[in-house]
Amino acid sequence: MTDYYRDLGVPKNASQDEIKRAFKKQAMKHHPDRGGNPEAFKRVSEAYETLSDSQKRQAYDNPAPRNNFNFRAGTGGHPFGDMFGDIFARHRHAQQHSYKNRDIKVTAQITLEDVMTGKTEYITYTLSTGKTEYINVEIPVGAKDGDTVKYQGLGDNADARLQRGDLYVKIRVKRHVDWARDGNNIITKKRFNIFDLMVGLNTVVLLPNQKKVDLRIPPGTQPGQLLSIKGYGIPDVRTRMKGNAYVQIEADIPRITDPRIAEELKRITKGF
Questions:
Q1: What is the rounded distance in angstroms from the CA atom of residue 261 to the CA atom of residue 169?
Q2: pTM beyond 0.85
Q3: Which residues lie below 8 Å from residue 80, measured CB to CB, with a gap of 6+?
Q4: Which residues of 150-159 are buried (b: 16+ CB within 10 A; e: fewer)?
Q5: 20, exposed or middle or buried, with CB in 10 Å at 0-12, 13-18, 19+?
Q6: Which of 35, 58, 67, 186 is 20 to 30 Å from the Cα of 102, by its Cα?
Q7: pLDDT tens-digit profile of 126-139?
Q8: Structural domains in the chain?
């Protein structure tokens, strides 16, 4: 049998505050996002879930004796007692599955970079009993703002007679300072000197996931034109096929204050 007290590093008479402090310490030590052991994190989470609940802790500390008798409590083994016990048990089972505790809804804030790479988000939420729950939410590559992940049986547990509600994690994607999403494509704007656009140039584009991609801007590129970088967008959540990155060109037009330069430009541009 797993020793939950040993997993948390507390004595059997530990108070709820001691158990909570011990769990936080062990969770930080073993959390996968911090380079810890996922199995150890799972064990301490399971230990905390049991020992932080007074009813579960009492049942863990005082396990029911095992025997080979088939008699139900209170029936004395009478066949009619067994029959009616089955009927009432089925009725209670049906009622418990018809009604459940309330669902809980929480939000996971992620970035556009997380959308492109996927992320495990560590979520905490509080039940109506005051107990704090912890869960690792696996956010898939390509997730969209407003997507919801459902975890069955991880909602509220206020009424012990009913099954737990469900947990709904709604994904919110923070707005990126440079990039916008359009389906599985990403779009940004970059400004260049008008003369560079006239003769063409090479530039480097920094993607939301911090990758650098070379981009050739051909001579005569017009302001407002979209240049495509194929295959550098967001992976589709189902097919994993990547969209494209698009760069919209904007022009900076310098102010010419030197009359000689202005005349020279007029001479050069006469042939256009």
A1: 61
A2: no
A3: none
A4: eeeebbbbee
A5: middle
A6: 58
A7: 998 888 998 888 88
A8: 1-61 (1.10.287.110), 104-173 (2.60.260.20), 180-269 (2.60.260.20)
